Amino acid sequence: MANDFKVKGFNLEDLLADKKMSYQIPSYQRPYAWDKDQISDLIEDLIESYLNDKEAQYFCGSLVIAKGTNNERYDIIDGQQRLTTFTILACVIRDFYIDSLEAENKDRIQDSIYDKYNKDKHKLKFLTDEKYQTTFENSVLKENVLQERFKKIQKAQDMKDNKYLQNAYYLKERLKESIAENNIDINDFVSWLYTKVILTSIECPDEDSAIRIFNVLNDRGMPLSPVDILKSSLMQPLDKERREAFKTTWQEIMSNLKTMGFSMYDTLNAYLYYTIAKNPKERLDKELKVYFDKTKQDSIAIIEEIRKFANHYIEIINTKDRYIYCLRYLPNQVYWRSILCAAKMVNYKDYDKLKELLVAYYYQNLIGMATANRFKQVSFNIIKAVKDNRSIEKIKDIMRENLKKYDTTKSYKEWLDYADAYDLKWVKPTLLLLEYFSKDDEIGFIEMDNKLHTEHILPRNPKDEWKEIFSDEERKIWTNDLANLTLLKFKKNIQAQNKTYEEKREVYLNKDNVSTSFNITQDIFNKYKKWNVEALEMRYNEMKTKIEKIIDIF
Fold first, then answer.
1. DSSP letters for 99-127
2. Partner of 514 for a Cys bridge, out of 28, 347, 435, 491, CB 3.0 to 4.6 A?
């Protein structure tokens, strides 16, 4: 078996400029993903090695390859990030330094990008995933395209949707900076790059053995994603035709998730919780592989179930529904997402009531400052109950028993009474919960971003007018209390600052072109003509009553 694998050291000229060697990214690989830091590290290492000891070889990692299905190109099993980057570097040198190179180095650079096998057609040396190949060619591989692109671009962030072009920009800038700082002869550097930079190449006999190597590398700590590993292990038992069908479905799922801003990993993690309904002890791909082996499911059937689950996942999170909106602010998203996806998968009849219970249960835990350990097992028990189509009353009992066990209802009420609540993690989600339930009208989802502010009505640094209304002791008690807090958008917050109540009232109620105040904020100034201890006590009681009506339903 050992003779089936060929292990050899190659320099970049052997790997990239040899006319017999050309490469492609196989279907089970992840996309090109190196970022600015990795680009900077690579250039820094190369320059340092060149300057310190350019006569010595510089080892730059390993490459695992196998003959692809068409037998013309090698599949890159491991090392595609590095090899893609070296290809982009060759394009940068070609477009910005080619005139400074001697004939031999010009050929090395050109042969790293394509083989000239007749005068009017080029064979590309490197093919990425077919989904990204056109982008790769049009933005990097074509001659002089980088010069044209960079004339229209001021900074790398302008290219955030094109990883190839963005990294070409980073390479160009980092290389230019290094050459200037160290007075480097670019022709000499290119000679060193192609003759002294070495990679160890492991050539596998076929695609199946390559996929096994792919999995083994991950087990040994190589940087391969659990999503990639799962995909490869599911594809391995399929014949060529069914692999293509699997790949098409997988890509469709990933594309749909990406369009909606969701990751494949998070979705598969929720799917894992749905399938095993217990705390996973192993990495995602390992746990799912054990589950699939146990259930003896065919890979095509598995990917169809994952597609169904992913569609429910997208549908649920994007639902225009105040209960879903509130759940989206929770710190442990996987639990409620898995539960509701389970409900969709089995067509659970009390789905709407289930949403209400989830908001009530998880918000009691949130406000009660509970850790995930308190509700983790309960969440798995709820998944099991939903999959078994147990009654909504049974699910309510599961939650009720857990709340009673930890005295969570008492805890959350005590935290509502806490005088220094302002900086606590539950305050903003709770204010948003009150906002969604302030009116029966449909309210769109409110992003909990840096533009959303928790506003003190009685300011933390009050003017003298406030000090006439509140004593020092009263300000100490009420300033950071929930009753003194409300929601504002950034520009309204700037307008309000630490003004008097009358001045704030005008800002809050003024429906100008600046983002207007929230319902709960406008209600304060419509209801209370003055802001004093009496008003604060009244508002606290109102808020507590509304919160209890939503979450104290057990």
1. GGS-HHHHHHHHHHHEEEEETTEEEESEE
2. 491
**What are the phi and psi torsion angles at 29 (to 5°)?**
-85, 155
- 456, 479 in Cβ contact below 8 A? yes
The answer to whether 214 and 64 are in contact (CB under 8 A) is yes
What is the spatial distance between Cα 522 and Cα 487, in angstroms, rounded to a whole number? 10
Cross-strand bridge partners of residue 8: 201
CA distance linking residue 255 with residue 269, whole number of Å: 17
**Residue 24 host element (H or E):** strand 23-24
pLDDT tens digit string along 235-267?
888 888 888 899 899 989 999 998 898 999 999
Listed residue (369, 371, 358, 361) closest to 412, CA to CA: 369
Q: Alpha-carbon distance 66 to 206, whole Å? A: 6
Say if residues 274 and 309 touch (Cβ distance below 8 Å). Answer: yes
Q: Match 């147990």 to its residue by tokens.
A: 390
| DSSP H or E run through 434 | helix 427-436
Report pLDDT digits (tens) over 194-243.
Answer: 999 988 888 887 766 666 666 665 555 444 577 887 888 898 888 888 88
Determine contact, residues 375/364, Cβ cutoff 8 Å: no
